[in-house]
Structures are given as C-alpha cells and as structure tokens.
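Notes to self after the call with IL:
- keep both proteins in one doc
- input above output, always
- annotate only the second one for now

Protein 1:
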Amino acid sequence: MTARLQIILCSSDFCSVKKSQGKKIRKKFGQRVRHLRKQQNISQAQLAFESGLSREQISRIERGIKNVSLETIVSLSIGFDIPLKDLCDFEIGEK
C-alpha cells in the first residue's frame, strides 16, 4: 500500500493524517529523500541549492525532524528533477 492510501483517513468532509503515524511518515519520507540524494550522488548542499532550500532544512527532512509542506515537497521534486509521484513513492508499512 502506498503512503497516500495509508496515511489519509477520510470520513464525510473531514480528512486527517493519523497522529500516531505522523512521526513514522516523516521518518520514511526522510529516508526516501536521503535514498534519492545518494542515488543521484549529490550532497545535501547541492540538493539544497537545486531545490531552493537550506542545507539545514534538507538535513532535518532526512532525519525525519521536519514536517514538510506541500511547497517543500514540490521544491524537492524540482531539486531532484523527478516527478512528484516518484518522490512520494514509499511504503509506510505496518505499525
């Protein structure tokens, strides 16, 4: 199951991310960012430059400390020069 299917609970007009999964999602997304960065053989500083973010922000994202906004996710996609769906292609897994 992909992240988008697993993290969003929708009932009526209300959608929210499970609070218990927030930390896990940040960690998995950070691992995905780190994996892609290493796969492209670029430094945090290079990714920061390409995406318009700071190196410190990249570090916090990779460590799962920073809860990223949609704008940041789009910036990372641009920095990696990959489609947004590829950046967000990761599994949350069970508990």
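Protein 2 (the one to annotate):
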Amino acid sequence: MKRQAVSITLDKERSLHYDLNSLALLKERGIDLLSGEADQLRDPGNIRTMVWAGLVHEDATLKEVDVGAMIGLGDLAMVAEKFGEALEIAMGGSSESGNMEASP
C-alpha cells in the first residue's frame, strides 16, 4: 500500500510521513500528538523531534541533532506548515499541496 507523504526541502528534498511507528517514537520521547496539547508544538526540542520522527522512515540512520542542523530559524514557519499537512494526512485527512507517494 502506498502512503501519502509531504515533500519538504531541508538539506535536500525529503518526505515527511507519520505512521504508527513515528507516533510511537514520539510517545517514547514524551510527545503525545494525540493529546491535543498545543504547547508541545512551541518547544524547539519537540519541533526537532517531531520532524525527525516524520523523516526517519526514509533514513533509519538519521539523528535528531542532524534534523536540528537542517532547520534554520527562518524555516520554522515552513516546517510548521509541512508538519501540519503531513499530520493531517496521517489522521485520515487530505492535503492538496506538497503531497507525494512514499514507498511502503
């Protein structure tokens, strides 16, 4: 089955995708996206971890610190938008911009 991903340009073109594995990784690090707590999205460490969890599906060697180095302060609005799109898709919605197919 093909999974929807959102294209995001960081150090290179990458695909941001959230599934059960990424939600579990986040939960292990104290971030529960299903709780609806908006404060989680304001913490720089959480932002880095949330993006990492959405990228690790395509590169298992990727580290959170690597992702942090890819995101400049000027990129935060774009990253937040792409994160929102990818999360909406993961929760069963659809997003029109930036979608691509990810491998199974």
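Annotation: The chain has a mean pLDDT of 85. The longest strand covers residues 3-9.
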